[in-house]
Amino acid sequence: MTIIKQDDLIQSVADALQFISYYHPVDFIRALRGAYEREEGPAAKAALNQVLVNSRMCAIGKRPICQDTGIVIVFVDVGMDVQWDATMSVEDMINEGVRRGYNHPDNVLRASVLDDPDGARSNTKDNTPAVIHYRVVPGDKLSLEVAAKGGGSEAKAKFAMLNPSDSVVDWITSVVPTMGAGWCPPGILGVGIGGTPEKAMMMAKESLMAPIDIHELQARGPSNHAEEMRLELFDKVNGMGIGAQGLGGLTTVLDVKVQEYPTHAANKPVAVMPNCTATRHVHFEMDGSGPAVFTPPDLSEWPDLDFELGPDVIHVDLDTLTPETARQWRAGDTLLLSGKLLTGRDAAHKRMVDMLAKGEELPVDFRNRVIYYVGPVDPVAGEVVGPAGPTTATRMDKFTDTLLEQTGLIGMVGKAERGPAAIEAIRKHQAVSMIAVGGAAYLVAKAITASKVLAFEDLGMEAIHEFTVKDMPVTLAVDSRGESVHTEGPKIWSAKMAQRIDAKNVG
Q1: What is the spatial distance between Cα 349 and Cα 373, in angstroms, rounded to a whole number?
Q2: How far apart are the C-alpha atoms of 88 and 67, rounded to whole Å?
Q3: 380, 106 contact by CB (below 8 A)
Q4: Among 318-327, 393-402, 415-424, 483-492, whose mean pLDDT is lowest?
Q5: Interior/surface letters 495-504, b for 16+ CB within 10 angstroms, e for the rest
Q6: Rounded to whole angstroms, how far apart are CA atoms 400 and 413?
Q7: To the nearest 10°, the Cα dihedral for 472, 242, 218, 168?
Q8: What is the spatial distance between Cα 228 and Cα 238, in angstroms, rounded to a whole number?
Q9: What b-and-e string marks burial along 85-124, b requiring 16 or more CB atoms within 10 Å of the CB?
Q10: How far is the CA of 199 from the CAs of 129, 144, 194, 205, 389, in angstroms?
Q11: How far is the C-alpha of 91 from the C-alpha of 94, rounded, in Å?
Q12: What domains, with CATH codes, occur in the chain?
């Protein structure tokens, strides 16, 4: 008979969360490496280079792959013959593991979970509670899949109640372009079909935990409808040319997963959700012999790449930057930023816009400055700042026109595309918007040589900081004319891929 001890489960969850914060799953590393080796788009290949370099750095330095260390999702299969040596509930044990995992002094993870989600939105400070799904199954083992899912990819989840005769593939290929690049492709697309609305969503999420095996499926061929759909979606989504970070390229998804469940005759619930380049999950079993043991991947799994940006790099001195200089840049340019860089994201933007509406003076002068949309991880062991990758720029779109008009801001740095309203505001005020690579947070942090809080300290990771940066790599996403690399890049690569398919069919 298996007896699971309370402390063993708590320690296993804590260790799992530390492990996945700095180790990509091996199958994901291999798939990402293959995508890098195949990629022909220069901007996408440079982005994949940064992701892979960052991943290897994190594996060596044991620091988070991404500054968004996620909301914890746990799938628990409890064997019917399992017994417990515990005074806490299973839910409380798992949450205590989350608490310890996120507050580990050697690798503090960012607390991103907010209580009272439609009210005060106060940070729980330890990333609890986790979202936990249970099944009671035959056997005498406790099986867990522990994942940490970033907010950027979670925000792109889609659901629809289709008519029974509607095409699932048509619906998914219609919604993927609307996801933009905020989910940090390339990643995995999870699909849930059938059951009820909540069942479809849970299947889509759970499917993301399966091993990447699309190339094996391509080699042997499909044996059922779900596998046929996986192959069709894989080709069609990659054929869109969205590419790494939405910059245009050959690989948008590394795999497509599909789970199905019987459903009502009148319904066809369908859910789709992506996993990003910071894919983080691990499976383990407990048999009563003690805490789970996690074996690190061999470093040989990562390509030993140098960080490369190519020859045409523009060096930018942020301390002497003028609007006239910024107006000379063009969408797609690679920039290296040095000097003083302000930070601020959702909560700081909301507070600043509210202050401006009341006629109040802002605590920071933004004239001729650049702001970085970031919520960094706390530093450890002498670091200036913890991993500090970008958050999704699109969420700041509604604030953009006001800040550009009333503060004299020159530029912004985030990840993913800007929406039409923000692009028009950028064009109107002749400002610029840049992207740093999502999923390369530790690499970006190495370019930050100093950090201090300037305002809104009560907002924690969302406070306004001033970073001193040295050669921080970014790509100009929207130039002062309103040209967007996220519009032009995928358009170019989808056309190229369509031409290749046509040529292959003719041949």
Answers
A1: 10
A2: 31
A3: yes
A4: 483-492
A5: ebbeeeeeee
A6: 12
A7: 130
A8: 16
A9: ebeeebeebbbbbbbbbbbeeebbbbbbbeeeeeeeeebb
A10: 21, 19, 7, 10, 33
A11: 5
A12: 313-489 (3.20.130.10)
Pairing of strands 142-149, 158-162: unpaired
Q: Which amino acid is at 255?
A: D
Beta bridge partners of 256: 189
Amino acid identity for residue 388 in this structure: A
> Residue 22 and residue 43: Cα distance in Å, rounded?
25
Q: Where are the alpha helices (DSSP H) in 345-484?
A: 346-357, 397-407, 420-429, 441-445
**Percent of the chain predicted with pLDDT > 90:** 92
Residues 98 and 376: their CA atoms lie apart, in Å, by: 19
- Write out pLDDT tens, residues 205-227: 999 999 999 999 999 999 999 99
Helix and strand element counts for the chain (H, E): 15, 19
With beta carbons less than 8 A apart as the criterion, state whether 133 and 76 touch: yes
Angle, nearest 10°, between helix axes 397-407 and 420-429? 10
- CA-based torsion, 371, 479, 182, 252: positive or negative: negative
Q: What average pLDDT score do residues 410-417 get? A: 96
pLDDT for 368 beyond 90: yes
Cβ–Cβ under 8 Å, residues 489 and 478: no
pLDDT > 80? residue 309: no
Model confidence at 498, in pLDDT bands (50, 70, 90)? confident
- Burial (CB < 10 A; 0-12, 13-18, 19+), residue 132, is middle
